[in-house]
Amino acid sequence: MTTTSAPPSSPPQRRDSTPKAKGRLGDRLFAGASTGSGILILLVLAGVAVFLISKSLPALTADTADLPNEEGLASYIWPLIFGTLLAALIALVVATPLGVGIALYITHYAPRRLAALMGYVMDLLAAIPSVVYGFWGIATLAPALVPFYGWLERNLGFIPLFAGPASVTGRTMLTVGLVLAVMILPIISAISREVFSQAPALHREAALALGATRWEMIKMAVLPYGKSGIIGGAMLGLGRALGETLAVAIVLSASGVVTFNLISSTNPSTIAANIALQFPESSGLNVNVLIASGLALFVITLAVNMLARWVVNRRADFSGAN
């Protein structure tokens, strides 16, 4: 007697009662608002670029004799670009190690209550207006640095950076760089702190379980994970330093030259500070020249932010589980 087995029945298809996401009104509204916001940002950026280019054309095509320095537009803007980059570089060199060190202390060394207090204080520094930093720099920091500048001239004067003569007022490029370093310190510290706190706990615990000290654990597990965050935060801080206006205009004693001497009274100005100081009294072609210098600052800042985005995207696929 033979028996036949019934063919296996296919599992019943479960009907999904949830409507498709693309059909929901809320999702469509959110997608449209997000897309519109992105397009609006691009339009605003394009509008700023078009404005700067159109207003800079008279200066770009003007005769050399009609320009403020009578030597050409490039010779007028170049010292300003040099001063802008020099001040921002000083700020970056000073603020980046401090910001990373503060972030590491808050996330891995400080007690919980002290870490919360320090994080609040660091975030509060970002809310202080730049004019307050400028007044602090000219009234407190600059006079306090005068003896130090004299010591640098006497002992390190053979280095072009400290050749002197030392300024008797302290209103130097190095003072401006230190003020800018304090201003961008909260940006670098906040971003680094967030990145370090998200380091994979599995990696940190594995390093400690293998006998690593706390610093060895940070060096092997935390810093490699947060490298892109540190670079991105530093680039964002650099962008802030490049565009700072009031603090630089208040502190710096500018003379429009190109020099690497950081402690003398002869200092290059920055683009933003020069525009703020010269624009109220300018008219005609001089206004176009200032807008042309603003176009140069726009290009530099845009390049810095694009570089930061490229660095972050290079490690966007990094995962703590890899």
From TrEMBL:
SUPFAM superfamilies: MetI-like. Its main location: membrane. Residues 81-308 form the ABC transmembrane type-1 domain. It is a multi-pass membrane protein. GO terms for biological process: phosphate ion transport. CDD domains: TM_PBP2. Keywords: Cell membrane, Membrane, Phosphate transport, Transmembrane, Transmembrane helix, Transport. The chain crosses the membrane at residues 29-53, 73-106, 127-152, 172-191, 245-265, 285-308. Belongs to the binding-protein-dependent transport system permease family. CysTW subfamily. This is Phosphate transport system permease protein. It comes from Modestobacter italicus (strain DSM 44449 / CECT 9708 / BC 501). The lineage of its organism: Bacteria, Bacillati, Actinomycetota, Actinomycetes, Geodermatophilales.
